[in-house]
């Protein structure tokens, strides 16, 4: 029998270490490498757009040795590791290196660059945590058709458990090739201009966040698969809840959701926030998998207000 449950979170004394503004949840772990086309077909102003996109993307994650590690490789006729996964553990250091990156120029040997990643970036010496089960992810940004074979190197990376997301500035004739590089069709973006990168930054970062793992969520589910229930979280978002307390609430909900098998036919979640008004964050039929719910919870903004 379907059961409906409401969970009310009031202004009790919640404690947390810090207020976190990033889109991705703070305990996310992932090894993320950006692979950037620096060939001469990329105009200097377009290369600047790529660097802006990279800096904006970095801001969405909690960077650290035990959180998200980021590496950057640029390629053209040659391949150069700008910095490896184990090089930096702060956003400021990473952004500084991105802004200092000089365009290589030359041809577009995309396949060669994919092979390079496996031997130079995704290694234990390079800072990869693949042996510990940490998700390994590549975001490829390119503007033209590769001048070498890309299918075989891409398949090798996939067989090693590395997820490939591809962003292309190409005509439609190249779309199938981009899709063949990516791990699946949903992990592709085709844009007319590099200036359009800013319009997809948040969506791509959300997708990458969903690929990350959260060690805090590793544990048994308390509800058996096939069970059905409609659960509503009712969250106090008034001024009586401090920003640090509100972050603690979000962390609690983030972990709690993972204890259930979520789908439109199993456990469904809704979320309301209230103060002197009521805000519907999402309804039962809005999301049908855990990570989408968790992403929304983590990005929920406190509405404040005087009444509880």
From TrEMBL:
Primary residence: secreted
SMART domains: VWA
GO cellular component, one term: extracellular region
Signal sequence range: 1-21
InterPro entries per UniProt: ECM_Assembly_Org, VWF_A, vWFA_dom_sf
Cellular localisation: Secreted
Residue ranges occupied by any VWFA domain in the UniProt entry: 31-204, 230-308
SUPFAM superfamilies for this protein: vWA-like
Coiled-coil regions listed in the entry: none
Keyword Ribosomal protein: no
Keywords: Glycoprotein, Repeat, Secreted, Signal
Entry annotated with the keyword Glycoprotein: yes
Protein name from the UniProt record: VWFA domain-containing protein
Gene source species: Scleropages formosus (Asian bonytongue)
Lineage: Eukaryota, Metazoa, Chordata, Craniata, Vertebrata
């Amino acid at each position: 029998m379907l059961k409906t449950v409401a969970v009310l979170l009031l202004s009790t004394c919640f404690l947390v270490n810090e207020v976190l503004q990033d889109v991705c949840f703070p305990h996310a772990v992932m090894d993320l490498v950006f692979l950037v086309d620096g060939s001469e077909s990329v105009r200097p102003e377009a290369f600047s757009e790529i660097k802006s996109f990279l800096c904006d993307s970095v801001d969405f994650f909690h960077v650290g040795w035990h959180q998200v590690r980021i590496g950057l490789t640029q390629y053209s006729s040659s391949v150069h590791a700008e910095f490896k996964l184990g090089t930096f553990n702060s956003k400021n250091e990473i952004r500084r290196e991105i802004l200092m990156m000089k365009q290589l120029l030359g041809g577009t040997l995309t396949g060669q660059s994919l092979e390079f990643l496996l031997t130079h970036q995704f290694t234990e010496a390079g800072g990869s945590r693949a042996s510990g089960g940490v998700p390994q992810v590549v975001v490829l940004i390119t503007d033209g058709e590769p001048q070498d074979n890309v299918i075989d190197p891409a398949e090798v990376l996939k067989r090693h458990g590395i997820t490939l997301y591809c962003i292309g500035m190409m005509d439609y004739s190249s779309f199938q090739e981009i899709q063949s590089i990516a791990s699946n069709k949903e992990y592709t973006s085709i844009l007319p201009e590099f200036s359009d990168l800013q319009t997809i930054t948040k969506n791509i970062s959300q997708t990458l966040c969903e690929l990350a793992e959260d060690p805090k969520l590793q544990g048994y589910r308390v509800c058996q698969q096939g069970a059905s229930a409609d659960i509503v979280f009712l969250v106090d978002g008034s001024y009586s809840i401090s920003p640090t307390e509100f972050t603690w609430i979000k962390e609690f909900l983030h972990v709690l959701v993972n204890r259930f098998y979520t789908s439109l036919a199993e456990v469904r979640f809704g979320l309301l926030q209230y103060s002197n008004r009521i805000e519907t964050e999402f309804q039962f039929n809005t999301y049908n998998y855990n990570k989408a719910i968790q992403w929304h919870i983590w990005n929920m903004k406190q509405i404040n207000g005087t009444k509880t």
